[in-house]
């Protein structure tokens, strides 16, 4: 499922409002390595809606014929069609992002969504921001969750290359503690790059202005991307994907 630009607004803006609520309230849920489907009802997505999206992805996986597999949360799910087609239309690419997913949800989907039917050549992975925002986890916990997802992908798709994205920066100001948590996580995640099968890329600086702030023209809610933001991401991803497909 791919939603275009502001067609995702109702989901993304509500999600942004919820995104850091658990952290602010000090409520921590164990998500990183807890292999589970969606277990929390949110105003922007019910548990049943999540299961329907997963059934849609399962049906997509059953068709196979995917060379480039995108996996992640709402940031991945939200690719505008025009930007998706412009950057990846020449590939056999499929979008397996589901809004609100944390690493435990992705681990469950890898085991239960019929994704063993796929044989991608490249997996583009971006996951982890909801471990902070919806689970209230610390960078160390999120790192273990991302490590588990990468390990699961290596086992499921041993011949695939993994383009491991750094978690994108959040919040407008560079000194915000949430931005610092993301930066700390990414320093750890960078160690998963093995120079062979897993390629780590931090595209985050492309979304940050010279003074360290993030423009709402790129991230309207300082979490999700605008069409301009997707264009920036696509321009960065495309040469790396092309290189990994060779």
From TrEMBL:
<protein>
    <submittedName>
        <fullName>GDSL-type esterase/lipase family protein</fullName>
    </submittedName>
</protein>
<dbReference type="InterPro" id="IPR013830">
    <property type="entry name" value="SGNH_hydro"/>
</dbReference>
<feature type="signal peptide">
    <location>
        <begin position="1"/>
        <end position="21"/>
    </location>
</feature>
<comment type="similarity">
    <text>Belongs to the 'GDSL' lipolytic enzyme family. Platelet-activating factor acetylhydrolase IB beta/gamma subunits subfamily.</text>
</comment>
<keyword id="KW-0732">Signal</keyword>
<feature type="domain" description="SGNH hydrolase-type esterase">
    <location>
        <begin position="70"/>
        <end position="232"/>
    </location>
</feature>
<dbReference type="Pfam" id="PF13472">
    <property type="entry name" value="Lipase_GDSL_2"/>
</dbReference>
<dbReference type="InterPro" id="IPR036514">
    <property type="entry name" value="SGNH_hydro_sf"/>
</dbReference>
């Amino acid at each position: 499922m791919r939603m275009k630009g502001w067609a995702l607004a109702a989901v993304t803006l509500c999600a942004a409002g919820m995104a850091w609520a658990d952290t602010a309230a000090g409520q921590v849920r164990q998500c990183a390595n807890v292999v589970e489907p969606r277990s929390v009802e949110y105003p922007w997505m019910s548990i049943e809606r999540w299961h329907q999206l997963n059934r849609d992805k399962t049906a997509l996986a059953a068709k196979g014929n995917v060379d480039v597999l995108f996996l992640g949360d709402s940031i991945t799910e939200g690719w505008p069609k025009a930007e998706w087609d412009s950057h990846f239309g020449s590939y056999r690419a499929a979008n397996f992002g589901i809004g609100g997913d944390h690493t435990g949800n992705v681990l469950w989907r890898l085991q239960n969504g019929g994704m063993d039917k796929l044989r991608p050549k490249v997996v583009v992975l971006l996951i982890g921001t909801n471990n902070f925002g919806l689970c209230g986890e610390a960078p160390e916990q999120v790192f273990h969750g991302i490590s588990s997802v990468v390990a699961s992908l290596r086992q499921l798709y041993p011949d695939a290359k993994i383009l491991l994205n750094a978690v994108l920066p959040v919040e407008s100001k560079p000194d915000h503690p949430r931005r610092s948590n993301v930066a700390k996580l990414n320093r750890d995640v960078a160690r998963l790059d093995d120079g062979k099968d897993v390629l780590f890329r931090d595209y985050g600086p492309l979304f940050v202005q010279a003074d360290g702030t993030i423009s709402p023209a790129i991230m309207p809610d300082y979490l999700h991307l605008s069409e301009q933001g997707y264009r920036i991401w696509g321009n960065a991803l495309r040469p790396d994907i092309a290189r990994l497909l060779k």
